[in-house]
Amino acid sequence: MAKATSTLSWCNVRLGDDHNWWVNETSDPVRWDVDGLSIIDPRQVTHLIELVDPLRDYGFDQDMFDAAFIPFRIEKDLGAGKVRLKRVKESIVESEDKLFALADTLDEENGPYADLLDHLTRCRVKMLNDLFKFESKLSVDEVEDEIREDQNSHFIEGKAVHTFEELTAILDFMPAGYDADDEAPAKGAEDEGDEDLPEIDAAEEEKLKNDESLKWDEEGDDDDDDAKKKDKDKDEDSDEGRRRSEKIQGRRRG
Questions:
Q1: Structural domain span for residue 28
Q2: Are residues 237 and 116 in the same domain?
Q3: How far apart are CA 249 and CA 254, in angstroms?
Q4: pTM for the model
Q5: Does residue 73 contact residue 85 with C-beta atoms inside 8 Å?
């Protein structure tokens, strides 16, 4: 694939009304059709790198990410929202420079970018299945079908899907009914009160029911009442004794 892209040394890009960058012209017009050809800008590159970082624990291959893009640096401002880019030999992940990234789509079916889309989808599915308790495990085919359905609606409307949107559709994918912010299944209000309670089986529950130390019975209340009554009687006896003592002392003084 390196030989196929070796003649691509520069390209002119424009800023579209959608605030995305699109390719107007390339140094290799024979292999590269600029109709609907998008390119990722430095800001979007940074965002994508942040999105793929959690996937490292699920088999993400950085080399596949680098291989899927052709990096460019700004060479000249052409004015009117157009820029000339020059190709560079750097890693878009590790470079400290602000680079544009053109997806290598010369072979749309088996090229490095197609391989990356498949790789990211598998990593995302693996991560979601690990984080969420689905009734049945999420499959790669399910995710691809849902994303493809959204993309087809754009094609029907005559809109080209930007590379950045294609990638974020995978990296931000969440099944209906689940919240990405919570990293847990979406719950109804009726479940919130019990979310911290541990689960116990029937045998353990029955054992707890028969535990005398955990009962809130009436006997305990009666015992408390008796204790209070006894304390009251003691107080009354003490007062009566004090009064009798005072009377005797008065008689003696008299």
A1: 10-184
A2: no
A3: 9
A4: 0.68
A5: yes
